[in-house]
């Protein structure tokens, strides 16, 4: 299956196209949120983590992605000219891949932000537990395949495991 899309139109059209793409690829959407100020996301069925990794991260052995055993696949959609919060996590590492559109990333070991690195289509970024990071929308929509690598098997990460150092939306 082709792993890239053309992300054009308004927000509703972009999300509808991505949802159709995911369904055509056989993925079950477990949750979705299209109302984030920076765009939104699709949470995919965790039972499909292997299929997700096979499609979006074919050069990485599934076992090397596992830290505590559980993996959570997700698609992030970042809209043009917006930024997610400058953040880090206590209970997960993440791996990202730009699969369609354009996006940038900022990373740091400290609370000090560096410059935006433009991601190349197909580029993979590994974010360690505690590493500061921010996804940045550039001149068009960006679609990022993301796997949460849970670091605490007894207490898997969730949406509350976000420490926001800075946020453009006051959250």
UniProtKB/TrEMBL annotation:
It holds the Pfam family MannoseP_isomer. The keyword Isomerase applies. One of its GO terms (molecular function) is isomerase activity. Keywords: Isomerase. It comes from the Bacteria. InterPro entries: Man6P_isomerase-2_C (IPR001538), RmlC_Cupin_sf (IPR011051). Coiled coil: none annotated. Residues 49-167 form the Mannose-6-phosphate isomerase type II C-terminal domain. This is Phosphoheptose isomerase. It comes from Chryseolinea lacunae. The lineage of its organism: Bacteria, Pseudomonadati, Bacteroidota, Cytophagia, Cytophagales.
